[in-house]
Specification:
alpha/beta, Rossmann fold, Cytochrome-c3 Hydrogenase, Chain A, domain 2, 2 domains, two-stranded antiparallel sheet, 9 strands
């Protein structure tokens, strides 16, 4: 990004935040939550919060000089209403969000945004919960951020909700009408996930196929909490969608292959592979490609951000990436312990995630990539054995 582009973006963000402050009648109200007080009550200093802002700024690909604006956006975010809907899912994405760190301010995130509806963490139930949802959609029409977790069954008799007998599809469409921004959280909402796997008895669909508005896909099973919160902060800062790839995934989080930034990449290049789980090569941390790692075909930042307070991730724990942030991963990536290069059939690539050039290159290039990676793995392994 050139200095002129940085200046232009900086001014845009400042204008955006000034407008948010003017539109917020409660920002200076004595009854509203003051960020500094919330931080102090929770045991976090202003310095801790500034460190979190710096980490979040870097995570969404902005220069370090933008950290003060990110901090300001988080302070204003307590007036940005959020509606979080649960469809056909396991709540893993919500669990990921609840573990947001750097520092451990998951409770602060909920204090700083106006979380109007979230079935997992809200106290209300039954009729009271239904009223909370409809009141939020009415009172904040055109202003709230809609975040949807889970695939959505298209057929009428699946996922019936509430006393009125509404379906999940009807609820998602209704909530989408008044949303200022819409995020599909997790692979199930982004691409259908396991619910849409063959034979897909409920005819589960991704959110984008159920509504007629732009959707930001934040796939992963579950996605990193940084990817969830980062996209929310990105919207608050800019008031617009981030740069997206051909599958509507934010490029700041999904532009690189798992393989590119993997700590085992050196072993791959050297032809050092785990031949079967539990062997001596596994103990030495060799590459997991031959036992099914789909890192070369998967686009996500897991290898960079990791999980559980950044301590580990599946490949670090000894199992290969299963490609969970790619479309139709359950059908196209399985069996998960078998190399994809062993199954070079044209039908295997329908719906596959693409690399940085895939916006224009398409499936044929990916097929060549698969063949090339498989050939390299075999050749480097033979060279190593010699």
């Amino acid at each position: 990004m050139s200095s002129a582009e940085e200046t232009k973006l900086f001014k845009k963000m400042q204008k955006r935040l000034n407008n948010l402050a003017k539109l917020n009648p409660y920002y200076k109200d004595e009854d509203s939550k003051d960020v500094a007080e919330v931080l102090e009550r929770s045991g976090f200093s202003r310095r801790d919060f500034m460190k979190w802002a710096a980490v979040m700024t870097a995570a969404i690909g902005l220069p370090a000089s933008f950290a003060p604006l990110t901090l300001k956006a988080a302070e204003l975010a307590n007036r940005v209403p959020v509606i979080w809907l649960h469809m056909a899912e396991c709540t893993g994405c919500s669990e990921s969000l609840l573990r947001t760190e750097d520092p451990g301010i998951d409770s602060i995130i909920f204090d700083l945004i106006s979380l109007e509806y979230h079935e997992t963490v809200m106290a209300a139930a039954g009729h009271q919960a239904e009223k909370s949802l409809h009141d939020a959609m009415k009172n904040y029409y055109g202003r709230y951020v809609l975040m949807v977790e889970g695939g959505i069954p298209k057929d009428e008799y699946f996922l019936t909700i509430g006393a009125q007998g509404r379906t999940g599809a009807q609820e998602a469409r209704e909530a989408a009408k008044g949303a200022a921004a819409i995020l599909a959280i997790g692979t199930c909402s982004s691409f259908g996930g396991v619910q849409a796997a063959n034979p897909n008895p409920t005819n589960a669909q991704p959110l984008s196929k159920m509504i007629d508005k732009p959707v930001i896909n934040v796939p992963g099973c579950p996605p990193s909490e940084k990817n969830i919160v980062g996209n929310l902060i990105n919207y608050i800062l800019l008031g617009s969608l981030p740069a997206l790839d051909s599958f509507n995934r934010p490029k700041w989080a999904y532009q690189h292959r798992i393989h590119d930034l993997c700590e085992r990449r050196g072993h791959f290049d050297a032809g050092e592979f785990v031949e079967h789980f539990g062997d001596e090569n596994a103990k030495n941390g060799f590459c997991l490609y031959k036992v099914g790692c789909k890192g070369p075909y998967t686009f996500n930042n897991c290898s960079k951000l990791r999980f559980n307070s950044h301590t580990n991730w599946p490949v670090g724990a000894g199992h290969g990436c299963i490609g969970c942030s790619e479309p139709d991963f359950w059908d196209t990536m399985s069996p998960f312990e078998e190399p994809l290069g062993n199954r070079l059939y044209s039908t295997a690539y329908a719906g596959f995630g693409a690399d940085k050039t895939a916006d224009t290159a398409g499936i044929v290039l990916l097929a060549i990539t698969v063949i090339g990676i498989a050939a390299h793995a075999v050749a480097s392994s033979v060279t190593k054995s010699k």
